[in-house]
Write a structure and sequence with these properties.
Length: 75
């Protein structure tokens, strides 16, 4: 009852998640429209970058969660 994607690991730029989530939301709507099936779960695979080097600038969990909520809710 769900969909999953995996973007990779050590992801610093959230734009790849934006594109993937938008496409998955479209797919979820298409499945609902064509098959009448509600997709209850969306598993966001991959991993946010972590700070191994001083120059690494990983996104914050708060920004990531806010992005997900905004994209899923359509705002």
């Amino acid at each position: 009852n769900g969909l999953h994607f995996h973007l990779g690991s050590q992801i610093f730029d959230l734009s790849s998640y934006v594109l993937a989530i938008k496409e998955m939301v479209k797919l979820m709507k298409k499945i609902k429209d064509l098959e009448g099936i509600d997709t209850l779960n969306l598993n966001l695979g991959g991993g946010l970058g972590v700070k191994y080097l001083e120059s690494d600038l990983p996104p914050s969990i708060e920004n990531f969660v806010n992005l997900i909520v905004r994209l899923i809710s359509g705002n």
